[in-house]
Amino acid sequence: MQRFLLPEEGAKSELGDRPLRPRRSVEPPVRPVSQNRINDQIRAPRVRLVDEDGSQIGIKMSAEALEYAYSKGLDLVEIAAQADPPVAKVMDYGKYRYEQEQKAKQARKHQSQIHVKEIKLRPKIQVHDYNTKKGHVERFLNQRAKVKVTIMFRGRETSHPERGRDLLVRLAEDVKEIGVVEQPPLLDGRNMVMVLGPTKNAGVQRQSGEARDAETEDTQRSEEAVQGDSRRKAPAASGDEESHAGEEVGEEEEELSPGPAARA
Hints:
CATH architecture of one domain: 2-Layer Sandwich
Helix content: 40-55%
Number of helices: 6
Structural class: alpha/beta
Oligomer: single chain
Number of strands: 8
Radius of gyration: 43 Å
Largest sheet: 4 strands, mixed
Order of helices and strands: EEHEEHEHEHEEHH
Distance between the termini: 147 Å
CATH class of one domain: Alpha Beta
Strand order of the largest sheet: 2-1-4-3
CATH topology of one domain: Translation Initiation Factor IF3
Shape: elongated
CATH superfamily of one domain: Translation initiation factor 3 (IF-3), C-terminal domain
Low-confidence stretches: 252-257, 260-264
């Protein structure tokens, strides 16, 4: 074992006298171990072999089952390790892993994530500010999010909690079409809290309104296009009418003007 000698007292310390701190060893990243044993990773001496189409082949030795899978150009995957003997299936393991990942991705996509937004009010809030806060609450509920409404009391306002309760009840009544009270107003220290949750109608009206706006915009664009085409066609038609009128006038003049024999 290597020992480091400390410098004697009174001696001048030079670079290299003190032991250096050892470097940290960086471990290589460990790849996640697959839950299913495949091919040579199967430790059981015998397995119940299942073919790629799901048909039962029977109990085979692991080496024989592995050779059977290799003959088909596929993998031998242990799908039930707790069984006696374990169940192994012949399949394309890469394709199997891809299908499992796609299923997990679809399951995560269809999961509903609950978001909680918070709105803070004062018991002496003005009408304009109240309408602004109410608009925020409606927007959050239409986004399928829960809303935590907090009334903040200061000073002597804590002696009149009924004002905050009345304000919360009024807000819940104003948004009752898209929000339902999940937690009634409760006094928590200097704050009073109420939780609103979205109803089934939350977000539906917004989507229908956006659809109506889109349809109205498309209708206006089509009408403008039709009007533009009619305006472009109108000058051309008037020009054709003028040319036809000029030809008719010319023909009438020729008919009315006498020939040279008549003049003589």
